[in-house]
UniProtKB/TrEMBL annotation:
Keywords: Membrane, Transmembrane, Transmembrane helix. Gene3D superfamilies: MFS general substrate transporter like domains, Multidrug resistance protein D. It is a multi-pass membrane protein. The chain crosses the membrane at residues 20-41, 53-72, 84-107, 119-140, 152-170, 182-203, 215-235, 241-263, 284-309, 321-341, 348-370, 419-438, 641-660. Residues 19-473 form the Major facilitator superfamily (MFS) profile domain. Its main location: membrane. This is EmrB/QacA subfamily drug resistance transporter. It is found in: Membrane.
Amino acid sequence: MTATPPTPASFTAPEKKITLIGLMVVFLLAALSQNIVGTAMPRIVEELNGFSLYAWVTTSYLLASTVMVPIYGKLSDLYGRKPILVFGVIVFLIGSALCGLAGEPWLGNFLGGGMNQLIAARAVAGFGAAALITIAFTILGDMFEPAERARFGGLFGAMFGLSTVIGPVIGGFLTDNLSWRWTFYANLPLGLLALFMIIAKMPSLSHRQGGKVDVLGTLFILTTTIPLLLALTWGGVTYPWTGGVILGLLAASLASLVAFLVVESRTKDAIIPLNLFRVPIYSVGNLAGFILNIAFFGVIMFLPLYMQLVLGVSPTKSGTSMLPLMGGLILTSIVAGNVVARTGKYKPWMLAGGVILIFGLWSLTGITAHTTLPDLYWRMFLVGLGLGPTQSLFTIAIQSGVPQAQLATATSSSQFFRQIGGTIGAAVFGTLLMNNLATEMPRHLPQVPGAQMNAKSIDMKALRTAGTGSDTTGQKIQAALDEQYAQIEQALNGDAAAQAAIRANAQLPAELKALATGGLKAQVHRTLTAQADAVRRALSAGEAGRNTLLASAETPDALKTRLRAIPAQALATPQSSAAVAGQFAQGLLAQEAAAYDQAKTRALAGLKTKFDEQATTLAAQVSSGMKEGFTASVVRMYRDAIWFAVAGLIVMLFVPVIAIRTGQKSAPAAAPVPADGPEPVTPARG
């Protein structure tokens, strides 16, 4: 028997108004939680020493919230919107507080250190945050007619834009003036305000239909996404792409996806009803939103990192520098939402946004290590213009194309696909950046004594000081060269361990290795032996030989003084000349230790001067090389993002055009979806 759909509830204008305000506060809270952290991330990973886990701070949040999106949609159908929303806010606030505590000394090595603690706490916050946006959009669909939803959807998109404007600014300000921890604590007062408005002011919204939670489907979502994200994160960085670990994770994810599809096709209360995919606007729209959100997160995640590490701006400044991007996003989001509300024509705005997004991403590939902020601003503005229409139009169109009885499920699952796109985008572009750094950094960095730069050991402080012009890098290089100088001095003094270390040092020139490991001593010995032989031969010739030595520019002054002191009669006969020659030669050879000390002193003095000059040169080369290498890595990443945007645009070409509903009285819209697919949607008139 076909169940009779519930009659839509009626709400007074004041109830709608206060609910809309409450939903906007909730939506702002959820959006801020994603945007306030970005400008603080460079300082966070620097303090917690976790650059290789940079993307996982975002990925864990998105993964937890993404998996919970369809679950909260179903739970709200079973138990009502309001209690699920309250639960989500409470869990989100707990997670935010735990994020602020990550890495505190009293936590020690719990969960493997501060970075892992932060990742786990972000997952808790994401677990709660999923309810915020999902239930907010669902309540919007419950209380307002579709034409109003289009207008308010644009307003919510603008609210998201506002959060992306004030979020980075607030996050940067708190990081500069207090601590990065306050970027998480700042969620608490706004969250408590939202909680009060929900409990005290929002009207009771009864549950819409029966059924049960699809626990097995939820489990398979987890076992599909987690191995996939791990493979995308570890591939090419921790393990080779063709290695057993990555291939095994991908195979496990694929097997779990197949199992998920089988289970969902046989489950009455499926978490994502597969028959919804027979609605073209649902399937194609979600695919386009999924792809575009991959590119979206590839853009916004790493712009603050580029600005702080390459352009040398502060966290606060990097937050305000996001204004052009968010200004463009807000502009087109509001304009598109209002125009679509009046005309019902959404596809031209989607396509125009996709084209502008591609052009904006292409413009970002033109940034360099010397790009100025004004030059960056217009590129970011273009990206924002392209992103704006995608923030609400897909949801509006999908809500108009699915039956009213499945509005909550369709809305939550649509949000699920967009968020899973963002989650995959965070993982993919994080991996791309790490792989790019491993390739680009060696191309731009000189060899530094005692240092090695790779994707797993990025020195965030060195990168940041390179961007700000600090001399920290120069001090480290000077210290490394001083240590190397001391080792060379020990080797010249005969220290066998120091000589062995120098021989094993691949960064030292072969000539310097040879000199420090016995070459200088052998050189002094050869020089004195040759000099002694020359003096012996010359003095054996008598007075004429002495005069030859005195006239030679190669004879040291000290030796000339001694030669002049020889009495003439000592060189009068061959026998006496030979005796004097032998004594002189032996005297010269006896001075070998002193000569070696003098040569060592001269060599070390010259080496010290050379090392000091090298430290200055290397510091400049490392600072510029870090900025150039990081910029080249980001540019390559944006080139990859273009392909995702192009793919999203191609999919959008196939988005069907349907009429946006102008009311909730459409009978077909309220009918349940039959087994063989949805009935055609006929928009209500008048």
